[in-house]
Amino acid sequence: MAKLVGAILYIFILLLHLHCHQCKAAAAARTSFVHGSGGRATKAKTAAATAAAVRAMFVFGSSLVDNGNNNHLNGSGVRADYAPYGVDFPLGATGRFSNGRNVIDALGELLRLPAAGLLPPFADPSTRGRAALHGVNFASGGSGILDLTGKNTGEVLSLKQQITNFEAVTLPDLRAHLQGATTTGHKMKGQDFVDQCYLPKSLFVIGTGGNDYLLNYFKPGSGPTRALLSEFTSSLLIKLSNHLQRLYDLGARKFVLFSIQPLGCTPVVRTFLNITGDTCIEQMNHAALLFNSGLRSIVKNRNSGVRSHMPGASFVYVNSYKIISDMIHHPAKYGIRKTSRACCEVSRGGVLCQKGGPICSDRTKYAFFDGLHPTDVVNARLARKAYGSNSPDEVYPINVKKLAML
């Protein structure tokens, strides 16, 4: 069995070695397609080319992209490892904060990553070795950009800690597997696969920031001592930029940044402020828009080289705010009926579903499954827009599909 595993791994490394020699030629061909040349035959191969271009996907962020890391944190108070979560997910309640897929699952499927696009959570002890070769999810529900965000909910993995987990555990593990330390004793020389081919062809997805407002800036009791919203947001964006730089220094080159969703339209915020009807809380939405504007500027500046210490990096901004807002404000267009209420009966606090509690009969008609997190149908549309939209108002400056083929 050990010889068989070693042989399979050696073949994987050999194929990766051959792919590296073809990186420039393949990139040129894919770039030609992106800019419009080529006919139907070329377009028919797009999905296969995208799949070949993406080696792995590494995910960092909060509960909107967490797929089970908090299940392994004994002190976590933000978990989704119980029914009714996962009621429409083939594997049941896995720790995803939705009735079905989260946006990362749907995006991974569109990118044709193995295992139907489902990434293993870092905190699962089995996510080591070959299990991590096509990507790992490091996200933690309740976490934020700031180290203190979410600490009042129990144990969380901050964005800083998530990147440390990638650097200290996953990256050395990948180097050991992709740079020749195989069970067969073979060693591929003359090519640093991880730094020259594997990491540059991987996507680094970040979806965080909302909790820094919900569980930090706007939390009850913080009023009199709060900084100005503009100052807080500016500090938040600087810290995020530093985290992005750290990922770049570790080898990341392709970044996908999801904006904050319309916080003021979430059921938990409306309920907390006793809002009836479909009115959104503009103060919360203003904070989200302020952050999102700065996030888009980061993408614009990094891609243009302005004040950038990241040569060779490419960034995509996904406007989750607009995509989800469109579904909330024009529900009939998307077959949705309920935009201000959670599908499940929420527990005290207004965010998470009650364990074993009742849920709506048709989840496709609801925008939110619990007090904060979208349903599968919303996550799927968000992923489709991120992957294939050609509108700069939705994805900027290019979509994820084109980023993958660069």
Automatic annotation (TrEMBL):
Domain of life, source organism: Eukaryota
Pfam families per UniProt: Lipase_GDSL
Annotated GO MF terms: hydrolase activity, acting on ester bonds
Signal peptide: 1-25
Keyword set includes Lipid metabolism: yes
GO biological process: lipid catabolic process
Subcellular location: Secreted
GO cellular component labels: extracellular region
Positions in coiled-coil regions: none
Name of the protein in question: GDSL esterase/lipase
Protein's organism: Oryza punctata (Red rice)
Organism lineage string: Eukaryota, Viridiplantae, Streptophyta, Embryophyta, Tracheophyta
